[in-house]
Every structure is written in structure tokens, then in C-alpha cells.
Amino acid sequence: MAGLPLPDELAARAREIIAGRVEPVPARDAATVVILRGSGPRGGPEVYLLRRKSTMAFAAGAYVFPGGSVDPRDTDQAVAWAGPSPKEWGEVFHADENLARGLVCAAVRETFEESGVLLAGPGPDSVVEDTTGDDWEADRLALIDRSLAFADFLAGRGLVLRSDLLKPWAHWITPVIEQRRFDTRFFVAVLPEGQRTRDVGGEADHVVWRRPAEAVELARRGEIFLMPPTYRTLDELAGHDSVASVLAEERHITAILPEAVEVEGEMRLMTP
């Protein structure tokens, strides 16, 4: 039998929504970034994963990629920009130019907030080499509490966002049966030379670099929890033996919306 069985509470909500008695929650625009680095000790690329705290309202205990919701200020046209334009990103992700700008900015901002990795540099052909000082940490915390806008952060350091360091990968929308929903574009990026991820706390209680195939196998054995979009992405990446191979893959982005379906009296979540 295909699909994932839904717990009783979620199954009941699914039936209410299907019957039209409950209105689905709108999905918030969001971005997430799969950070890759070169071959690990067992060969093949590795990905950076965070385990969300068990107290989080959404995806508690799940291993996820850095990411989060688009901040209204992420669409600020004052953001210094290098690489493919918001218009070009919009064409890839089937979004208007304003939203596309916000998605790319959110991807870069959230990656810095949740891993310390910054996809920006002094110019269109350079990238920051180190983001580990106390002054960087102060800026990171100010971005998290929203006392500092991303455009002002870049301007204050004389940096430009490097959209060319991002690769579009996927588009997932949280099922309508969930009470917290996100319309998320997935990106892939390579850990810039000289930079390193660090345990930055916040929403995560553990971080790890893992080969995609290993993460998938751990999830299959029930040793870690992966949400369907994370599982699918890791499974796709497991077919690549190098970072270069991942970057060379052609991707045609279409929205994926898992759907609750009743199968022989049981509500199950089906993923296209």
C-alpha cells in the first residue's frame, strides 16, 4: 500500500478538510538550502543537516536543511546583487520577480543564520572567506531577531549577494491538512572555500555532515526522522558521486504537493 499512514488526529483533520468543513491554512513562502561539501572519508558529497529541537511546533526532532520563511524585507530592491537576476529566478521557480527576489535573499540569509555560511562577497567574483568572529556573530543574531535587515547587513559590510552560488533544486508545498504550511523552494549550494559551518544553536540542538545515502538509510531504519521533502532530496542526491555531478544535473522545477487520500478506510499521505 503506497503512502504514509496518518496519525488519528491528522486523519480526522484531513477528512474535515476534504468534506469542506475546515478551511486549509495558507502556505507561507519559504526557502531552504542544501549545503554540499566535497568527498567525505567514504567518498561522495556530504550534506549539512540540522536536527530541530523537540520543542519546536513544526517538524520537531526532524533532520532538515537550513531554511525558513521569507521576511518582507527580503524583497528589498536595495539588496546588492550579483548573478542571475530576480527575473531569471522567477522564471525558474514560476514566481513573480518580487517573490523570486525574496526567495533568493531568504535562502542566503537563512543559511547564514542557521549555519554561519554566507553566500556573498565583496564583488561578483569573490566570496567571504571567514564568518567566525564576534562581530559576525553579533550580526547573525541581529538578523535572527529581525533588528537588522538583510540589505543593511550586506551594505554595512560592503558585500553583494551571490545568487550564482545557488542552484535551483525543487519546490515543495506542505499538504493542506497541516496546520503550519510552507511553500518552499529548495536550493543547492557548495560550501565556499575557507568557510566552515558551526553549531549556531537556535532552533537546532544538533548538526552533522552526512553522506545523502547514509542519511536515507538511517531514516529507513528509523534511527533519524526525515520529512518527505528532505528524504526525497537526499535520495536524489545519493545518486551522485561528486559535487560537480550534482551541480551539472538539469532540474525542471514543478511544485510537489503531497495529498491525503483515503485507502481502504485509512487516511494516507501520497506524494507524487
From TrEMBL:
<protein>
    <submittedName>
        <fullName>NUDIX hydrolase</fullName>
    </submittedName>
</protein>
<dbReference type="InterPro" id="IPR000086">
    <property type="entry name" value="NUDIX_hydrolase_dom"/>
</dbReference>
<dbReference type="InterPro" id="IPR015797">
    <property type="entry name" value="NUDIX_hydrolase-like_dom_sf"/>
</dbReference>
<keyword id="KW-0460">Magnesium</keyword>
<keyword id="KW-0378">Hydrolase</keyword>
<dbReference type="InterPro" id="IPR039121">
    <property type="entry name" value="NUDT19"/>
</dbReference>
<keyword id="KW-0479">Metal-binding</keyword>
<feature type="domain" description="Nudix hydrolase">
    <location>
        <begin position="26"/>
        <end position="232"/>
    </location>
</feature>
<dbReference type="GO" id="GO:0016787">
    <property type="term" value="F:hydrolase activity"/>
</dbReference>
<keyword id="KW-0464">Manganese</keyword>
